[in-house]
Amino acid sequence: MSKKNQHVVPHGNDWAVKGAGNSKATKVVGTQAEAIELAREIAINQGSEMLIHGQNGQIRERNTYGDDPFPLKANYVGSRRSPDLIGAFFGVG
Q: Which residues, at least 6 apart from 41, have a Cβ–Cβ distance to it below 8 Å?
């Protein structure tokens, strides 16, 4: 089984889950929430990413369930920078 990223995309009045590069949808469902649940299960199983597109087609969220190609650096905790990093930036301590 290949590790294709899973995309949740609008599909007319419904929502679809599509593997990256696939022309056909894996499944079409009635709500975005259903599509997200299915795409998450597939991405976890494959160790890939899930990309959620908005109604306009733009990616609005991305979640990694395998090896993260861009892991957080040790100097970051969530979205807050460590005091050492801030101090180094301002030339303090």
A: none
